[in-house]
Hints:
Layout: E1 2-11, H1 15-23, E2 31-34, H2 40-44, E3 60-69, E4 75-77, E5 80-82, H3 84-99, E6 109-114, E7 130-132, E8 135-138, E9 152-155, H4 168-180, E10 186-190, H5 196-204, E11 208-213, H6 217-228, E12 236-240, H7 247-253, E13 258-264, H8 267-277, E14 281-293, H9 297-306, E15 310-317, E16 320-326
Parallel strand pairs: 8-9, 10-11, 10-13, 11-12, 13-14
Antiparallel strand pairs: 1-3, 1-6, 2-3, 4-5, 7-8, 14-16, 15-16
Amino acid sequence: MKWVRFRLKTVTEAEDIVISTLYDIGLEGAQIEDKIPLTALEKEQMFVDILPEGPGDDGLAWLNFFVEKQEDGLLTVQGETVDVQTLLSRIESELEDLRMFCDIGEGSVTVDETEDIDWINNWKQYFHQFYIDDILVIPSWEDIRPEDSERMVLHIDPGTAFGTGMHETTQLCIRQLRKYITPETELLDVGTGSGILAILSLMFGAKHAVGTDLDPCAVEAVAENCAVNGIAPEQFEMMIGNIITDKAVQDRVGYACYDIVVANILADVLVPLTPVITGQLKPGGIYITSGIIDDKEQTVVDAVKAAGLTVLEITYQGEWVSVTAQN
């Protein structure tokens, strides 16, 4: 399978109207490249360990539209078969019409062709088995070596949900979880992603886990990773929603019923999350946080203390910090 890419140079202020206009002629799923800083909500919805600082907004944007190319070289758009030049002419005509009403910047369009790409699974070439202390973390497409046969093995495929365990923040959480988990532990994993922290907690001996996430992709990722690690469905309950702002999610998660709450999220999200989480923790419950770059340590510590929690331990790996506190 091959794809024809129409790459359009415009300005950031015109992104939405250009996308909407081209959607009407059958171009869907725009890939946007710009330097606009993320909003607080967008940061909250980023399922990564670290949100890197990017360059400043220069007002420019590139919009990429991909259309599948048939064996005869033609394209199908809205049920109509057209050639590349015809579709390009339609795009350029729509852009010219837009210029009458708004500034779309340069508005140039280039066309190129890409080979078949597995958009969902292409990342697999970068993820290979590795160790977290005495734990072997291995994806489904690799085999366990004989010398690792006696290790604890975590099978993990993040899919489109974040979480492989390779990042320092995840490893900091794992080590803290191991210290505090008992056979009676009820665990809440906020921002569960692939489910790695909750699944390992259950493998360490926790009784039950609940995971929350904003990304619906986490549901499938968690189910698959539970299955390959022998975690029964009733051991790990998954919920989608924003526990910080959604009272219905908070009610469903439950109050004063968790021995441990773990959150490997950015510091800017941990600050509003922390006062909410105190309601989910049992008296004396443990709150484990990470995703904290070193210069944000005091920010999170202050938030933890302001919520009435007692800081028990602060641990470090590289430039990353984990803060563990008690309710």
